[in-house]
Design a protein that fits this description.
With about 140 residues, this protein is of the alpha/beta class. Helices cover about 45% and strands about 15% of the residues. The protein is globular.
């Protein structure tokens, strides 16, 4: 697997999801830092103010206040955040076709049903990490060809 740099930002209103994600990451060969934020509005502020490198955003879709779709829409409206091209995926227990279609209409890079076991979640994360660690991203400040 390619080297993973940066943190995973987990945005989910259920605090136990952080523990599950960390356990799933520990079950694969590569562990990276996880930053957990329960409120999407706080996550937006964090993304705008903090200059830490974010490898991947994993968000739930059904959250009170601002839901995951609204969170993604706000990222896309912000030029700085949009140009960072941070991969954004949904992990949700809602696997209805209507919800999945709506998510992809918001330019997400993936929609995954939350796995039943930590091992299955680890395998899913391994696939996602391998893909995004190998994928080229635009880097701000580099001269155009």
């Amino acid at each position: 697997m390619e080297k993973i740099t940066g943190k995973i930002l987990l945005v989910d209103d259920q605090p136990y999801e952080e523990l599950l994600l960390k356990e799933a990451l520990a079950s694969i060969d590569r562990f990276t830092d996880v930053e957990y934020i329960a409120d999407p509005k706080e996550a937006l502020i964090h993304l705008k103010e903090n200059r830490d490198e974010i490898f991947l955003i994993i968000s739930d879709i059904n959250m009170p206040g601002m839901n995951g779709l609204e969170f993604k829409r706000e990222i896309e409206k912000d030029r700085y955040l949009r140009e960072k091209s941070i991969p954004f995926v949904f992990f949700s227990s809602d696997a209805s076709n209507k919800t999945v279609k709506k998510a992809y209409s918001h330019s997400v890079q993936g929609y995954f049903k939350k796995a039943e076991t930590i091992e299955a979640q680890g395998e899913l994360l391994k696939i996602i990490f391998k893909y995004w660690a190998s994928c080229l991203h635009p880097i701000m400040g580099i001269k155009e060809d």
